Amino acid sequence: MFILCLLVSLISSIDVTAIAVSRSEYPLSQGAAHGPSTRLTIGNTVIGPDGFVRPATVVNGMFPGPLITAQKGDLFNIEVVNQLSDESMFLQTSVHWHGISQNRSNYADGTAFVTQCPITQNHSFLHTFTAQNQTGTFWYHSHFSSQYCDGLRGALIIYDPDDPLAHMYDVDDETTVISLADWYHVVSPKLLGVPSIADSMLINGLGRFVGGPPSALAVINVTPGKRYRLRLIQMSCQSDVKFSIDGHSLTVIEADGQPTEPLVVDQLQILAGQRYSVVLVADQSVGNYWIRGLPNTPGANYIGGVNSAILRYQGAPAVNPITIALPSTNPLQETNLHALGSPGVPGTPGYGNADIQLDLEVSVKAPDFQFYINGTTFGNTTLGNRTVPVLLQILSGARQATELLPAGSVYVLEPNKVVEVTIAMQSAIGGPHPIHLHGHAFDVVQSAGSSAFNYVNPVRRDVVSAGHPGQRTVIRFVTDNSGPWFLHCHIDWHLAAGFGVVFAESPADTPAYVDPVPAEWDRLCPIYDNQPNFTLPHMPNIQI
What we know:
Largest sheet: 6 strands, mixed
Shape: globular
Structural class: mainly beta
Distance between the termini: 71 Å
């Protein structure tokens, strides 16, 4: 009897959540990385990354999708194969290589209805491109309506053998890539046009939701004394995240594929689409430390291991950390980031001194809560938008803004000009709004919420916060990459509600600049146009 009571006492004293940490029902995607020549098969399966089982859109059966790696200067040959079959979600797809400038390969940008028609079921498209001199932390995701919210997203890293900051770290491999992704328990077509809050925040594809089971959490393993380059990729559809690691400072050395002067912080606010590389020094006592990714959802916390992962030192037991979240005393401020070896902002310093000044005023209008830029909403993006791709319009002879669709949403820019864009939030609720420009990195000469301008050494990146109503951001870039490039909010629900415009750079030069366009690209639109009209899932009366 005594032995039985002792067994019961021992069992009841075991930390159940500690047991959950070591489970592996849902595999991480940190296996063998794919090289720059690979195949991505887009399909459907049922997954439960936070313990709630639901159908998803995945890449090669995995969420997040497989890590793609390359070396500086490599040629990419990535075949995207559409094997989607679940009619509760979108059956067409396109894949965008976020942060890759696609210089002379606009057709490979993967943006549905801007640079290509979607890939239909049982068809494929081979994306061939070179990133030229680009290196750093990138990612890929669906660019068809809200599809990436259902799971089609993964990391893409281009390593630099001559990284000028390599002396700062010892380890930089597939084990130090960290994805942050909000997750919904409802398929994305049902959430279009409906205010929604993510059910969980996943770190490396694992997490927990409030009131859910103690499902497995991601573990990042480190060796005492070593220095790690952590590549943080914010793959969320909406949430921005405050990232930190208990007991450790982090040194920022990259923002969105652009090296930065090293900057020590203890917390980073990372918006959807943004990436940072930070150096972590494993200089604390051997043990387990909470990795924290707090989303900007009402009442978000860490109770029960939600919004968390684990940093585990070699030699530490496989149990939950007991570290405590302390208030940040040195959070990242974008205005403190400076491009490494920056040649300075292009053009004449001073606000209003660029060759081209663009003022984009963003508002939201009831009752449909569509987003408008300068009074125009971007097409019918909520329903997939059957507009002829802007690139195809240009290759077919359209050159002027008045000729290009969607009407009022295409801005024609002359070649080799310095462009200064002011993005002002008028009544654009739901911020801060992460603004992404395809085809370019840009200099952030004024950050949202700041009154200061920096034309000397600002941060250079491809996703910037435009802030909240009453705030603005100002960016500069040079029109040296002919083709149509999307500028849009990277909150996918906002893009689906019209928050975007297209910059058509020197359209008269585009046919020669992107020549030769692959024959496979030419076939995408005829195949798409010849399919029977399909119905948006869960909206049976709406034909698109």
